């Protein structure tokens, strides 16, 4: 059995700004400030970690964020749904086709490891034409401020669902940032980086993924 864990933004889809706008509204509602949101780079971060960084100058600790994160997730999803008609999310090249090919195999378990909260991840996936139910395993950005915690959590959940251990060579973590590569290393997985996201190519090369792909069209031939 193989486990394939996908990042969302920059890996499966491009969501054209809806996440930042939903954050703006949810942060204003729950915390009364957006901090330096407009200049913050989300790449590879979790929503919990983003809030902790933006709100630290305003007196909030990471632990404080943890007590609010579920309410924040609900607020962000509500605001994202309210504005989704004004935004678009597009599947990246061959992402839908790759998912269909992997789902056709009995020896593959699919999952999401995303810095988005679960609720907003599902909205973005639906907007880009993915069915969230096709990813039975998931770990999300409201569950830890550290991305490496999410790959560990996803692996535990996959082992529980499959009722078996996965060999490191059979675990694939696919993402578009150095943080995704580091999170793959946290579980000794095969680190697959794609150049369809926001990180410069040189930063991906420097992070030494096992595979560096132009886009997901190369995955089945090159990595599997």
List keywords for this structure.
224 residues, alpha/beta, 6-stranded parallel β-sheet, two-stranded antiparallel sheet, 9 helices, 8 strands
Poorly predicted regions: none
Could you tell me the mean pLDDT? 96
- Return Rg in Å: 17 Å
Approximate helicity band: 40-55%
Folded structure, characterized:
By secondary structure, this protein is of the alpha/beta class. Helix content is 44%, strand content 14%. It has helices at 18-31, 47-55, 62-83, 95-103, 118-127, 147-162, 178-185, 201-206, 219-222, and strands spanning 2-6, 13-14, 90-91, 108-113, 137-139, 171-175, 190-194, 211-213. The strands form 2 sheets. It has a 6-stranded parallel beta sheet, covered by helices on one side. A two-stranded antiparallel sheet has the order 2-3. α1 (18-31) packs across α3 (62-83) and α6 crosses α7. The two termini are 12 Å apart.
Describe what is shown at a glance.
This protein has about 220 residues and is an alpha/beta fold. The protein is about 45% helix and about 15% strand.
């Amino acid at each position: 059995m193989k486990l394939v864990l996908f990042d969302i933004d920059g890996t499966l889809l491009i969501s054209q700004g809806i996440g930042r706008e939903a954050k703006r509204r949810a942060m204003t509602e729950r915390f009364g400030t957006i901090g330096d949101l407009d200049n913050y780079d989300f790449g590879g971060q979790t929503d919990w970690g983003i809030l902790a960084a933006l709100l630290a100058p305003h007196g909030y600790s990471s632990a404080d964020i943890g007590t609010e994160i579920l309410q924040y997730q609900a607020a962000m999803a509500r605001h994202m749904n309210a504005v989704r008609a004004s935004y678009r999310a597009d599947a990246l090249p061959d992402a839908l086709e790759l998912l269909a090919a992997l789902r056709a195999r009995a020896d593959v378990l699919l999952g999401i490891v995303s810095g988005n909260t679960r609720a907003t991840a599902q909205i973005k996936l639906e907007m880009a034409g993915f069915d969230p139910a096709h990813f039975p395993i998931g770990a999300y950005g409201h569950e830890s401020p550290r991305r490496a915690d999410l790959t560990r959590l996803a692996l535990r959940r996959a082992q529980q669902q499959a009722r078996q251990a996965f060999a490191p060579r059979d675990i694939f973590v696919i993402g578009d940032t150095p943080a995704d590569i580091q999170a793959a290393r946290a579980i000794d997985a095969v680190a697959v980086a794609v150049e369809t996201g926001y990180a410069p190519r040189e930063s991906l090369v420097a992070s030494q993924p096992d595979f560096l792909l132009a886009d997901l069209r190369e995955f089945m031939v090159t990595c599997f």
